Amino acid sequence: MFLFILPGQLPAQNILKTVPYQVLPNTEFVVQLVAENTEPFVAFQVDIPVPTGFKYMEGSAVLNASRISGHALSASLLTGNILRLIGYSIGNTAFLGNSGTLVSFTLKSGPVPATFALALNQPVLGDSQSNNILTGSTNGSVTVLAPDILLSTSALNYGRVPLGSTVEQTFLITNTGNSDLTITALNFNDPQFTTTNPVNFTLSSNSSQPVTVKFTPVSKGTLARQLQISSNDPDQPFTTIALNAVPFAVNELHTGNITGASLSGGKLDFTLNNMEAFTGFQFDLNLPAPLTYIVGTAQLFRTQDQSVSVNQLNAQTLRVLAFSAGNNNFTGNAGKVLSLDFLLKGVAGYYSIGISNVIIANASGENIVSDIYGGQLIVSSPDIDASTQLNFGDVSVLTSSTVLHRIYNYGQEDLTITQLMFSSPYFRSNHTLPITIHPSGFIDLPVEFIKTVKGTATATLKILSDDPDENPFTLLLSGNAFVPNYLQIQTQDFLKGESKPVAVEIENEDPFVAFQFDLSYPPGFTPDLNAIALTARKQDHVLAAIALSNTSLRILVYSPGQKVFTGKSGAVLTIPFVSETSLTYGVYNLTFSNTVISNIRSENILYASKNGILNVQLATAQHPLIENAAVQISPNPSKGMVHLNFNQKPTTGTWISVYDLTGKVILKSIADGAVTSLNLNGNPKGLYFIKIGNETMKAFKIVLE
């Protein structure tokens, strides 16, 4: 389907419009409302909001004489500053022509540069039948051409500024308008404020210029001044920035520093930098714990007739007062004014030295202090450190035990130990005094425990030194003195099928009249209960032996006459054992339990029992006992390292095993040559056995100290 528009049948075009304008600020200009129409109209109406800051010039609206024929105009300002224009014909006569200005009116522009809309609201073109024949409208605009100044801040705050110094601050001037901004003057109302910038310059649209303001005070006070900026900004020809500052005279009291060792002396100096004359000063000195003032050591400097008074307010505070009886000034403008001597005594470290309640007085009695500064104390000292407990464990009444107790100095100065104070005669040390320990060093202090009477002992060792906070250093001592009464079985070597008596020995320091024990033995060994016999150490003693199980027996020996066994060591009875031929080669244990050694008062005086070992070996012509080959064990006793020296290199793969008295293997190794070393460090002192060989085995005793 096609739509043909014939000549004379074009769509109607009935339009109201305005055009863009460019004006200067605060300037009157004429706005024209144009009508373009292909159809006749007899009336019109439109509302035009007056832009913000603009003013409609009352009575300026007029109809275009070339387009009217008896028409009238109504122009009125509605609420909201809206201009309503109404044109009409009482005789219903059409406006003349088809194009051109319909009505014009005058506005006065505002001061702010910007582009503002000239909007046509609710426009109407009415024909003779009162129909709105308007087909469209076009809004206009008005651009105000002007500069617009913008400052980056409203105030420059300089704070406290010493007299004679210069402080600078900078702000930005920006032109946010659409034409050049000309700065014509920068005016300060105080000559202490100046600028290095030109006082007049031009900024193009949307450009900025930094302005630096220098403040050089010559007199003290609290200032609230102003910078006035003159420009061609139409609505802000004069703008201001507040200038705030507190210029002051530099009158500063400085506390010095002290560095020294604990128990030494140190001098603390105070200096005063003053722009103004002063007659005296006062302050409270806050003392850290290691500082003690030496009375009468205060000394003034830069004086005329000044005197000083130093009083101890409390343990941590000194009050210092320096004054002039004749109201005379201290001399000079800088330097030391006071020194005080102190004793340093305390823990190493860094400490603050503070001052408070400071007054620097001039001749008029005014406090002219501008600032105060504290100082620092650095103390170096010895620092003792050691374990606070020393336990000697069990020590025989027949011997003594000496332990090396390590004492460290973790300080920065030499530690001097001057005295060792033991609270009990059971403990002592033979170390020569005084003892000096250098920083980060240590000494091993020998401490001996000796007690000839059975029982425990506790005591304290007070170590007196020059440690500032741990003097004395207290060490808790303890030990137990025992009487060495032992029940034991020595290691026995057996061949398969061999019958041999096993001796039970008692080593006793105290006399005893009876003993009892249960003995567990391994399967494959059979005791002959009827052949158990007491040794020559007996007197009238009676023996009773019973089997508790297939692998244990009980022995009870006593004296009807309460007679003691003779001697102090050796076997007290023998127990014959038969080893079965089915036994494998190796080590077997004999274990005591329920052991008692009784004195005449029926007290159990047994200290410890030592279990036995049965060593089953093979002895043939092809495999002679290892004892036929020379092996030297050294050192024996040993403190940990044991060396085995063979007269001939052992067979490859020969095992070397070390057992304790319970039969537990504590070390197992393969012989690696004619000399083999064993490291037994870390094992308790006592008796051990070294087994050498593969099928053929032999036990050697070794004692660890």
Name some characteristics of this structure.
705 residues, mainly beta, Immunoglobulin-like, 6 domains, six-stranded mixed sheet, 0% helix, elongated
In words, what does this structure look like?
This protein has 705 residues and is mainly beta. The protein has six domains: 131 residues, Immunoglobulin-like (Sandwich); 100 residues, Immunoglobulins (Immunoglobulin-like); 130 residues, Immunoglobulin-like (Sandwich), CATH 2.60.40.680; 99 residues, Immunoglobulins (Immunoglobulin-like), CATH 2.60.40; 130 residues, Immunoglobulin-like (Sandwich), CATH 2.60.40; 79 residues, Immunoglobulin-like, CATH 2.60.40. It has no helices and 62 strands. Strands 1, 3, 5, 6, 9 and 12 form a six-stranded mixed sheet that branches. Strands 23, 25, 27, 28, 31 and 33 form a six-stranded mixed sheet that branches. Strand 7 and strand 8 form a beta hairpin. The protein is elongated. The N and C termini lie far apart (126 Å).
Number of domains: 6
Total number of β-strand segments?
62
CATH topology of the largest domain: Immunoglobulin-like
* Total of DSSP H or I helical runs spanning 4+ residues: 0
Approximate helicity band:
under 10%
> What's the CATH class label of the largest domain?
Mainly Beta
Shape summary: elongated
Strand content: over 45%
What is the radius of gyration? Answer: 58 Å
